[in-house]
Amino acid sequence: MHALFLACALVFSIAAGTATLTPTVAAAASKKSNDEVTQVYFIRGFLGVFSTGFDKMAKELKKSGIDAKVYGHMSGGAISSRIAKEFGQSGKRRKKLVLVGHSFGGNAALAVANRLRSKDITVDLVITVDPTRSGPMSSNVRQYVNYYFPGNGLGAKLASGSVSAKRIKNIDMRKRVDIAGEGDDHWTVTHNAAISKEITSAIRRTVR
Fold first, then answer.
1. Which of 69, 104, 86, 201 is nearest to 145 (CA)?
2. How confident is the model over 35-88, as pLDDT tens digits?
3. Residue 6 in this model has a pLDDT that exceeds 70
4. How far apart are CA 196 and CA 201, in angstroms?
5. Which phi and psi angles does 126 have, rounded to 5°?
6. Coil, helix or strand for 4?
7. How confident is the model at residue 198, as a pLDDT?
8. 138 alpha carbon, distance to own chain's centre
9. Could you give the percent of the chain with pLDDT greater than 70?
10. DSSP bridge pairs for 125
């Protein structure tokens, strides 16, 4: 299943040609002042079709005054560049930075955090939801939280590697009656009420 999924991703990626570099309309609706820095980056999975629960989370956070945007999984390079520009500009107050990704978007979140290490930018929280890779893990990330479905041929448990295991929390969704017990799986999990509440609550605790 994993191999078929990856093959389909490659075909559609080639057909698409270029990555989606612009955040979704829902997450970019409000006007920003010149000195605002994006705090939360949600990264959707393959083609963006199975991760639309992130849009709802971003809207909810924005109502609380937390700047959040939603990107596609092929926008990792653009996200890294934007963060480097925003957080590297002098005169801007350092805000907490959070990356959240689902499936291929989870892979992208891990990769973005790793790129930011070379720029000496700290990522306060990385949340991955059933990523298909177990890394890379980066020393510039304060905390990793990974929700995964073991044995589904897609989701992966994060491996500590050079990062302290204390910084990594792997959550087996198969054991959660409020997730797997509700019938949710890799494709629908971003719409799960329990996951949504936990992710937005974790973000609020981090950025405040």
1. 201
2. 557 899 999 998 888 899 999 999 999 999 999 999 999 999 999 999 998 887
3. no
4. 8
5. -120, 120
6. helix
7. 98
8. 15
9. 80
10. 98
Residue 130 gets the label, from left (phi > 0), alpha (psi -120 to 50) or beta, of: left
What pLDDT is recorded for position 93? 59
The label of the residue with tokens 């893990």 reads 137
17 token code pair? 């040609």
Question: Side chain identity at 189, as an amino acid letter?
Answer: V
Number of other residues whose CB lies within 10 A of the CB of residue 150: 13
Between the alpha carbon of residue 52 and those of residues 84, 105, 138, 186, the distances in Å are: 26, 12, 27, 13
Minimum mean pLDDT range among 76-85, 86-95, 197-206: 86-95
Maximal CA-CA distance, the chain: 49
Residues belonging to the chain:
208
Q: Is 158 exposed, middle or buried (0-12, 13-18, 19+ CB in 10 A)?
A: buried
User: pLDDT digits over 94-109, tens only?
Assistant: 789 999 999 999 999 9
Q: Are 42 and 57 in contact (CB under 8 A)?
A: yes
